[in-house]
Design a protein that fits this description.
Number of domains: 2
Strand content: 15-25%
Distance between the termini: 54 Å
Bound molecules: zinc ion
CATH class of the largest domain: Alpha Beta
Strand order of the largest sheet: 7-8-9-10-11-17-18
Low-confidence stretches: 336-378
Number of strands: 18
Order of helices and strands: EEEEEHEEEEEEHEHEHHEHEHEHEHEHH
Shape: globular
CATH topology of the largest domain: Metallo-beta-lactamase, Chain A
Structural class: alpha/beta
CATH superfamily of the largest domain: Ribonuclease Z/Hydroxyacylglutathione hydrolase-like
Largest sheet: 7 strands, mixed
Amino acid sequence: MQDLVILRPQGLYCPAGDFYIDPWRPVHRAVITHAHADHARAGHGHVLATAVSAGVLRSRLGAALPLQGLAYGEAVHHHGVRISLHPAGHVLGSAQVRLQHGGRVWVASGDYYLSAVDETNPTCEPFEPVRCDCFITESTFGLPIYRWQPQAAVFAEIDAWWRANAAAGRPSLLMAYSFGKAQRLLAGVDASIGSIIVHGAVAPLNAAYRAAGVPLPETPTLAEFADPQHLAAALRGALVVAPPAVHASAWARKLGDFSDGFASGWMQLRGARRRQGVDRGFVLSDHADWPGLQRAIAATGAERVIVTHGQEAVMVRWLQEQGLQAESFRTEYGTEGGEGPAPADASASTADADLATLAAGTPTLADTAAGEAAAGPA
Ligand SMILES: [Zn+2]
Ligand SMILES: [Zn+2]
């Protein structure tokens, strides 16, 4: 019997249903797990995705996107394949794809978030384990060095940094991917510390989250302050959330004297922080850490696991040692979400990609040791 999902040059393909999952080339029919740029490419003839991701998908791929939205758990049948979408806990609307055909169940995870300490991302539906025969898992952070701290500890670090900067009268520029991470930060910080201002690339995504019922603090953009004196007053002690592309840019210079920080799972590697040249690195990821990946895989009950983007070789070896049938697919997804920003902000995608490339280099032993030490306050 042919596999329910195979690898084709265009992406992951379901031969029985004649459709693709998160293809990286334009295809006639695609199921999109979530709206990060490397998973949601333009040019498909028909797109199936969660209804809750429709706002972000349309803002990125155009209002004319031929999109069919599904509720979590709702099923459609295509050429005899039953397709349903289940929460992945990664970003707003993110889903795992469950396929059922000929008595078999396969699940393609897309990107997902699950941590060892059983925490969830408050800005989206939590990861739902789905029983299956074969699980196609991501492994962005599939190395034993990746173990996330409780998020309350990370937010306490961010709040303390912001509070100290506010006391000194300077803004705190916090850089993070504009879709997903930025909203998780906005939902998690202590908004009573001061005002919050966002970059123009972050604002439409905040609007999409609010429209989906996710509460976020008030977040004006710099452009909304017409009067330079009002802007200067607002910036004093403000938290400014912007995509990584603003680093050392003319936009950032408008903030005057500021402290900067970067929030990413890659910040667990001290090398990544140093190369990014920021004052502070905060280890916060929307992907599963090493124990989270293991928990997710175990919860599916799958006897066969196919590993995609990330640390495939290490994860495949570990799974085989556990007695599972494991292999990998070479995909063309990015690293941490590969999150390119909104199309209006095309310059940011290059910087995101650069950082991801830098940070995704195989960690050295020195990085590993530093990573453990760097998990505490810098
Ligand atoms: Zn991904
Ligand atoms: Zn993603």
